[in-house]
Design goal:
2 copies of one chain form a homodimer.
Chain A (H helix, E strand, L loop, with lengths): L7 E2 L3 H12 L3 E7 L6 E10 L5 E6 L3 H8 L2 E6 L12 E11 L6 H11 L12 E14 L5 E4 L1 H4 L6 H18 L1 H11 L8 E6 L2 E6 L2 E6 L10 H15 L2
Parallel strand pairs in A: 1-8
Antiparallel strand pairs in A: 2-3, 2-5, 3-4, 4-7, 5-6, 6-7, 7-8, 9-10, 10-11
Chain lengths: 253, 253
């Protein structure tokens, strides 16, 4: 048998960028948990958002089998990368090996995680506050990226997560920054969607901002814009957004 | 906490029909296995076909992590149901809890499973016969159907599998029946695709026939036609196919 290590490619910036796109750009994924009785694996579909450090966040009901599983054993696996049309094995996807962490309502991160999730998935507002529902962060331990047939990579958390000293203060100002952009700079938001994210149709609004970029939603569509460099200071956010809008406008001639 | 049994609906014919459509109509799925070292769950995307009894069949490489997992512990979970556009949680899907069973090249079922898989996934002919690749039947033990928010059902193998005394003889004549239909009755095949399966575009051919119906492929698209009743005798196949074509033609007026 061929040595498995031979088929794993060396992780490069292209692989990291693809992994980040898949993690930040997936509205849903396949979650694998271990069932409490006997540890049989169990796969189910779940809506996904991202926390400020790009960690996937899910909203699940305690009445579901996957939640029983991850409450009993926090080891879960999350497959991300929406296949779309054509050969499903030609579409890139990533498997994250994670430790699930419940975000209780009393947790200081709860408000922030909730507003990010609800802006990406507005329909989830119907049940997000039901007593049996809870948010979980799925903290990545390792990842397997499959960029298409024969293009396999092993990645570490630092390859995919956003690490910045600005993350904490960006979290605090995110809600107001998102509101400000959508209400007072709708023209810039439309330009980000059309010129930078290449979305030809749809009415887009910003749903999340972090140190590495921001995301846009239009109904059930999702787009992500990555900044050229990760912001090290939250005071860089406003000028970075202004520069992006300016250069996008100029690119149109 | 609410009793979980309250949210599981009683299995009816509509639920069974939806489950069968999802299992027979999915070109790919999310496979959850247990990793050999430590039993961490691992989710990955896999192409899927069906054996003559509707049991899912996968073709996997021994070099992949999912194959290491299912060789070590045959307990796997398979999530089927392609989400498409719109709200991913509104699309029906099914989770099958299975026991994986390797189909060795010496196995009398190998030729048949291989030809079914390759007709559905023609591109897999490029690697299906590589020494590290093997077919596995994923024998269902139980299933969880989610027909959309709040519509949950528990199903048993007999709710989803095809059981007929005709299955063995249909398996034997399937290759030649498929070839005959595609070559000598291309007009009927086009009518099945357009009128019965409702496919407005594409050049379709039959890729599988069993006691409960047949499947059609056109490039990366897949459609399934279920017979009104399961065939109990393989001699019923030809007249059933002829009647279907006749009534479809008449429905056009």
């Amino acid at each position: 048998m061929v040595d498995k290590k031979q088929i794993i490619r060396e992780t490069d910036d292209e692989a990291r960028a693809l992994a980040r796109r898949l993690i930040s750009g997936s509205r849903y994924g396949s979650l694998a948990v271990l069932l409490p009785k006997g540890g049989h694996p169990f796969a189910s579909r779940t809506a996904v958002a991202n926390d400020v450090d790009r960690t996937p966040v899910i909203l699940v009901s305690a009445l579901s089998e996957h939640t029983s599983g991850l409450m009993h054993d926090p080891r879960v696996s999350l497959l991300l990368g929406e296949p779309g049309k054509g050969d499903p094995l030609a579409h890139p996807r990533i498997t994250l090996q994670c430790q699930a962490e419940k975000i209780d309502r009393e947790d200081e991160r709860h408000t922030h995680v909730r507003s990010r999730f609800l802006r990406r998935h507005p329909k989830s507002a119907l049940y997000a506050d039901f007593p049996d529902f809870a948010f979980f962060r799925l903290n990545p331990v390792s990842a397997s990226l499959n960029g298409g047939f024969g293009k396999a990579y092993h990645l570490q958390p630092q390859d995919i997560l956003i690490e910045s000293p600005a993350s904490a203060s960006l979290s605090e100002l995110e809600d107001s920054a998102v509101e400000h952009m959508n209400n007072d700079h709708a023209d810039a938001v439309a330009i980000y969607a059309r010129i930078i994210a290449g979305q030809k149709t749809g009415k887009w609004s910003i749903s999340a901002i972090d140190a590495a970029g921001f995301e846009l939603v239009s109904g059930d569509r999702l787009a992500r814009v990555e900044f050229e460099t990760v912001l090290e200071d939250s005071s860089r956010l406003a000028p970075t957004l202004a520069e992006l809008a300016k250069s996008a406008r100029e690119s149109q001639g």
